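User: Some background: our group keeps a shared notebook of sequences we're curious about, and every so often someone picks one and asks for a predicted structure to add to the entry. Today it's my turn. The entry only has the sequence so far, pasted here. Could you supply the structure so I can complete it?
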Amino acid sequence: MTTKAPFELEKLSNDEYILNMGPQHPSTHGVLRIILKLDGEVVKDLYCDVGYIHSSVEKMCENKKYEMIMPYTDRLDYLSAVNYNWGYALAVEKLMGITVPERAEYIRVMLAELNRIMSHLLWYSAYGMDVGALTPIMYAFREREEVIDMIEGMTGGRLTHNAFRFGGFRNDLPKDFMDSLKKFIGHFNDKIDEYEALLINNIILTARTIGVGVLSKETAINYGVTGPSLRGSNCAIDLRKTAPYSIYEKFDFKACVGKNGDTWDRLKVRMDEMRESTKILKQAMEGIPAGDIMAKVPKIIKPAPGEVYTKVESARGEFGVYIVSDGTDKPYRIKFRSPSFSNLSVLKEITIGSKIADVVAIMGSLDLVIPEIDR
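Assistant: Of course. Here's the predicted structure to add to the notebook entry:
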């Protein structure tokens, strides 16, 4: 227990007790500790004890040159590294007035959507294990390897990609990238159907998730929940649609939403999002122009004094970057707005009254990545 208990132990009834869940890694999607107050198997209260990573990444970034910060954004959300690179790149490019070439914008979209699929596939795999299904990871990692191979060919990295440069990219797409992407797009929707039949629509899973962990639209907005966890509550806020950046307004796709805001709706939204990402990838592949992949950027990055906030739609929701420039080669202040922090905050609201087993199912449906919380 912590030195200061989150619950008043002397006020526990004879049937109530305190149980630690975590912070062992396989249990809680990272080093997250949840302290449960239980009556039998019923959750009466809970407390999320974060801070076990202590990365201090924002303070480290304030002591690095702008171009040296990019790899740090990879590590905030190691499953959505491309989108986090993008959020930071957008902020610096906005500060400096840099216009990215159109071909580079298309490449950014393709990498970001592949990264979204890659993240959702790992979430699907981990969620299956959370609820006791070991087979789904064997299916999902089959296609995830295809995605990782494509991104690795472009960036050289399989997990933390460090893909972007201010103004575009250092290298163009590999020669075999389009052939691999075309092959992947040709069969991936059929694989999503397999995933849903195997797990999402399984009668055991639906019994454990439908009507469980209901998050209302109003509560989600009040807590700042974003991404699939918000859209599962029938709120069609997707930054690619509602606040489009880059060239997303050129593509035909929809914001996927649920109806009831329960655990199953949050699962289903992510499955539908993979289909929409495939649709975006097909359009980007067919429409990508020839041309430059890099804008003219000064060798020394020194934005003019000012401040900026940019945001992108990562696999978990709104990732925001706030930078204050004092005209030097290092940011005076940098602040990251991470979606998992707000999404985790709502866990207590939607879990009290559930059973111990439901805590794991509900928490997994929020798709948390802890390093972006412990900044």
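Suggested note for the entry: The chain has 15 helices and six strands. Residues 310 and 321 are 5 Å apart (CA to CA).
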